[in-house]
Amino acid sequence: MKHLVCKYEDLKIDGKKAVSIDRKAIVVVRSESGEVYALRDVCPHKGPCLSAGMIDRNCAGDSVGEYIFEKETEVLRCPWHSWEFDIKTGRSLFAPEKVKVKTYEVTIEDDKVYVEV
Fold it and tell me: Where in this chain does the record put each Rieske domain (predicted)?
C-alpha cells in the first residue's frame, strides 16, 4: 500500500525526512540528482536512527591520504559509529552481501512523495 510522506519540494537536495508508516521507522532521502529513496530508519549495528546521520559520497583512494569522492554512490552514515549504507540499495559499504537495511519503493505523483510498505 502506498503512503503519502511529503511533498517533493519539502525534501531539499541531500535532505532526509524521518517518517513512521504502520509503526515502521523509515527515512526518506533525496539524492544530489533529485531522486528519492526510502530506507528502514534503524542501523542494524546498535539501532540508532539513520535519519540522525548525514548523507555523503562514498570515499575511496589508492593510497594513504588520497580521497576520491565517488559521485555515483551516495551513502547515509549512521550517527553513532559511521556505518555507511548506499541510499539506493540499503547495502553497507563494508559487507554489502551481509549487512544492509531494508529499502522501500518510492513513487512521485503530482509533486507528492509516496512510499510503498
Answer: 3-115
